[in-house]
């Protein structure tokens, strides 16, 4: 569950800052790569997920501007009662926007899962047709485990600010058949999900991988 806090320090040159949250005793560190939204400023109310890394204190992930900011203010006079039509007109757009946002957030998940099912069916059909040996599934599973591990390692390096894994390596593993492991790592670790150039290349590797697998299967029939 996401927590709410306020940005109390932001260094635009070093691209990091700190969030103060009433639920956490220490200020929470966050980096620009873990932030989605307009450039952060001190005093900005944000929502975030917190993790604890060794003895370095809390760190914020998936940081975004708060949608609904709770402000402690003295009680004011209650507004005049609104008619049923006015309440309906105010609440209906809010509900529709919330539902639309939920559907938009879930769409990439269903697309990724659908492509993985299709990809697995291609492998099974190819093995049934004799285009691939059964043992190749073992190699594919190992490749995806390696890809998942490399994403985890890169995420840890980002948190601890140590040497990162080159993005070309991650894309190379994806295009060789490790893209499902990369997809799961992106969703679980919330890593490489907001960097659009990386995302575009990643989905290109998915397309290349599936098209190459499909072409290898149908090539004998085309000849």
From TrEMBL:
InterPro entries: CSD, CSD_CS, CSP_DNA-bd, DUF1294, NA-bd_OB-fold. It holds the Pfam family DUF1294. Keywords: Membrane, Transmembrane, Transmembrane helix. CDD domains: CSP_CDS. Residues 70-100 are annotated as: Disordered. Residues 88-99 have a biased composition (Polar residues). The chain crosses the membrane at residues 109-126, 132-152, 200-219. It is found in: Cytoplasm. This is Uncharacterized membrane protein YsdA (DUF1294 family)/cold shock CspA family protein. PROSITE patterns: CSD_1, CSD_2. Residues 2-65 form the CSD domain. It comes from Hydrogenophaga laconesensis. SUPFAM superfamilies: Nucleic acid-binding proteins (SSF50249).
């Amino acid at each position: 569950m996401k927590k709410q806090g306020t940005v109390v320090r932001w260094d635009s040159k070093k691209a990091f800052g700190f969030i103060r949250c009433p639920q956490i005793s220490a200020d929470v560190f966050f980096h620009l790569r873990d932030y989605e939204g307009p450039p952060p400023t001190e005093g900005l109310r944000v929502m975030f997920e917190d993790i604890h890394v060794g003895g370095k204190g809390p760190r914020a992930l998936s940081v975004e501007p708060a949608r609904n900011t709770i402000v402690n203010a003295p009680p004011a006079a209650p507004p005049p009662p609104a008619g049923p039509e006015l309440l309906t007109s105010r609440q209906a757009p809010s509900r529709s926007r919330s539902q639309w946002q939920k559907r938009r957030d879930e769409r990439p998940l269903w697309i990724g899962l659908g492509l993985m099912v299709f990809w697995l069916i291609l492998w099974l059909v190819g093995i049934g047709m004799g285009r691939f040996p059964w043992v190749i599934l073992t190699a594919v599973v190992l490749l995806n485990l390696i890809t998942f591990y490399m994403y985890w390692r890169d995420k840890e390096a980002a948190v601890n600010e140590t040497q990162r894994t080159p993005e070309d390596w991650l894309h190379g593993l994806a295009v060789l058949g490790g893209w499902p492991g990369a997809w799961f790592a992106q969703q679980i670790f919330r890593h490489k999900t907001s960097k659009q150039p990386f995302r575009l290349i990643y989905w290109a590797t998915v397309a290349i991988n599936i098209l190459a697998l499909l072409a290898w299967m149908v090539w004998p029939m085309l000849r």
